[in-house]
Amino acid sequence: MKAAINTLYEQKLAELKAQIEADKLPVALTIVTVGDDPASKVYVRNKLRLFEELGLPCHHIVMPEVGTMQSDLDVLAANATHPILFQLPLPNGLVAPDLPAKVDVDGFGSEALGLLVLGHAPVLPCTVQAAIDIIESHCGENAFSGLKVAVVGRSNIVGKPLVIELINRQSTVSSFNSRSDMAAVDWSSFDVVVVATGYHGTLNSDQFVEGQLIIDVGINRIEGKLVGDIHHHNEQTTAAITPVPGGVGRLTCLNVLGNAVKLAAL
Amino acid sequence: MKAAINTLYEQKLAELKAQIEADKLPVALTIVTVGDDPASKVYVRNKLRLFEELGLPCHHIVMPEVGTMQSDLDVLAANATHPILFQLPLPNGLVAPDLPAKVDVDGFGSEALGLLVLGHAPVLPCTVQAAIDIIESHCGENAFSGLKVAVVGRSNIVGKPLVIELINRQSTVSSFNSRSDMAAVDWSSFDVVVVATGYHGTLNSDQFVEGQLIIDVGINRIEGKLVGDIHHHNEQTTAAITPVPGGVGRLTCLNVLGNAVKLAAL
Hints:
With 266 residues, chain A is α/β, with parallel strands linked by helices. Chain A has helices spanning 2-23, 38-53, 70-78, 110-117, 126-139, 159-168, 248-264, and strands spanning 29-34, 58-63, 84-86, 148-152, 172-176, 192-195, 203-204, 213-216, 220-222, 225-227, 230-231, 240-241. The longest helix of chain A is centred in the first third of the chain and has 22 residues, at 2-23.
């Protein structure tokens, strides 16, 4: 899968570059961080680097952990004229402002999510878009209709919006969460399994069979090593499982650019 | 099930009456219809009658089928100061305006649906609320967590928002649609099956077993008789199946009042 993800990444990047040039799109991004969460630093650096490589403006607003108030974030949101994102997690009970869809590059706000339910969201949350991209690339763009997909995890930023988008595409979707009787599920019965719980070991690689596509959304640090939500028992897995790192996360970062392009083209 | 639905209806109505009196809530509703769809007439009459019985104001705006323009509906929506609904279906390509959540008594608009995804919708779509009410009444209010629910149908007004609400309540949810391989599904493996396709015969009563709760959302007219989406093969069904008419539809009508009360209490 690593090679397939790389190819997909390069293809998408080339398409985005071509679109930006052809349509002369004013693509720009503002990233707001509060404090210095170490994982956030890596994610933000990757996004900044991508915009920089393409010569596109990407502003990084760094707010102090001590003294930053909700109203400070709300003012930034209210004045946003181009795509903006508030890097999660935010400290001290601060919450990301509920952005209007036209600047909501993460697609996390109520307007973007409501439009998603109605089937005309301007952008999908970046990780949801990554999962869709991988399914489309692996199974074919006409594969969604009738595709049997399991989505494990029910977060507002991955699990729930992914279920909605898959339903929009006429897939047969099953949603599981921590209260589901996971042991009783025949995971081999699904064409695609997406695991997005944030817990390493939610499922094991030997629960899957040849012909299945398994998308591992998790990024967890275990004993200093980055691992996904899926525990790899051995190297003999015959299912196609996306790697961590270098899988969903890499495409998610690219989709921030992809979403900024979509919003610029509105 | 008919008796259970009646009891639930009477309980809910009594609770709503008590709440309106105790909190002196200014409950009101405007219903807009365009043309004279015969099914709509029945639904609208039932809603009007319910408000009338309680001495609550319910305005009915009737627009002609010929000559009514989208902008006429949009003006009504823009000026709404209390709960309003546009009775579906609308003729001539007219669409219901996308209402702000605070007056969106049907919960069909993008703001209400976006808030639903985030887990804090002011109201659920009335039929979704009816399904939730029936599950809660039949299975217990603590039953949702881990409950295995199948939702058949993926409309914007029932299937999709019901899936989202059930995920919010930590149920294990499977969503099916016309592209799903229905014949391969073991329907008896679910605790609850909700059928909302609008097609009579989507599933048959003998596909269910004792102990299951089956919620039939459909209202179809076949040879002059009202029937649900489920075809009843015989009278020996041991599963609890909601009747049509007198099942979900009855509660849906009551939930228009319930939602108007919730919006008045905001």
